Amino acid sequence: MTTPKLKLGKYSVGTGDRFAHQAKAQLQACVQALARGVEVVPVWNKSNREHTIIGSEPTSTRQAADAAVKTLGWKLPYYCDADHITVQTVDRFLSPCDFFTIDVADFIGQPAEAADIESFVKRHPELLGSIELAGADEPFEITRDVLTATAQKFLSAVKKAGEVYRKIVSAKGAGNFIAEVSMDETDRAQSPEELLIILAAIADEGIPVQTIAPKFSGRFNKGVDYVGNVTQFEREMALDVAAIAYAIKQYGLPDDLKLSVHSGSDKFSIYPAIHATMKRFGCGVHLKTAGTTWLEELIGLAEAGGEGLALAKEVYAEALAHREELCAPYSTVIDINPAKLPSAEEVRSWSPQQYTSALRHVEADPAYNDSVRQLLHVGFKIAAKMGPRYLHLLEANEAVIAKNVTENLFDRHIAPVFLGRSA
Fold first, then answer.
1. Which of these, 254, 289, 277, lies nearest to 181 by C-alpha position?
2. How far is the C-alpha of 376 from the C-alpha of 71, rounded, in Å?
3. Bridge-partner residues for 81, per DSSP?
4. Which residues of the chain have pLDDT under 70?
5. What does the pLDDT look like over 114-127, one tens digit per residue?
6. Where in the chain are the domains?
7. In sequence order, what are the residues at sequence separation of 6 or more whose Cβ sits closer than 8 angstroms to the Cβ of residue 215?
8. Which CATH class is domain 11-292+410-419?
9. Among candidate residues 158, 363, 334, 323, the one with its CA nearest the CA of residue 263
């Protein structure tokens, strides 16, 4: 297996920038972490779907990242992520990106060829029986039936990941990019035992994966807190980390392979568990925060008052009017209670404080409304249709927006996950 020339680093944060205006403010959060003695590598991620909705090209993400790095004098690694790409969508990302999140969720459950399954099971007798994992509180018990069933469910997906990986290699050369395999956008969480088997298949496929994004139990809804059993999540994460450590030694996978927590934005209740697990095992994590920056733009515009507040209210009214259309692509990662959504007329009467209190993710604030937040999270399409009008207001109110963006990323995400404390 090719040893990657590029290394992601122990701690990294994936940060979305829908309109490519907040890269400097996002990088400033990593600068603040570095000033406190912790290196957190920034990874700007944007999916093909988001580029298509906004009408942008992947080169815009690269240009914004490069400009921010130059302005702030960032001397450490940084990356641009072709987020959730497939063999059909990867081409436009090949030149500007050096991080590729290979999404194979759609192929999970597609039965593999019987001969491939039989060959995989024969090739991996070490996966049968009881497996002791360093640092884990419990062993893995894998029967032949479990191994066969897992291969049947995931082998086709892993082979598709290999196809995409080799397409990237043919364009960029081996070792010249970070490879992530994503399996989170599916209907059922993968068990730690399944993750170990998947990693064996990834190694067989020759993918030098540096991050792996499984689906954890519980709900990882967009832009709001985790819904589920935090104790169960911490147990699963610990076993996943132990499985990764075992797979690195057993299969020669890259020694910096780590978990990627997708839809990691605002999962405040599990951040202490993530930090505790990293400390326990001495491992890292890739936290993908995605679209919360867009929400901080809206908060900043509302705080600015005047035209900014008027536009923020208009975005809400249009999002409410087109709720079903906007929510459909995100149905597995949002839970909106329509009864909690105020009318457009009510929101038009709101002060800046009322708007920002409803939207800003502060659980202790009685005005906070998680349904409003989720609706606006998927409502960036409304702003995209506004075009230059929206972008002009971002530029006119850069100072207040940047303050919100940096504080959100550092105080609410980087500090609790990577520093283990509130800022």
1. 254
2. 30
3. 45, 99
4. 422-423
5. 999 999 999 999 99
6. 11-292+410-419, 307-397
7. 183, 184, 185, 186, 188, 189, 190
8. alpha beta
9. 334
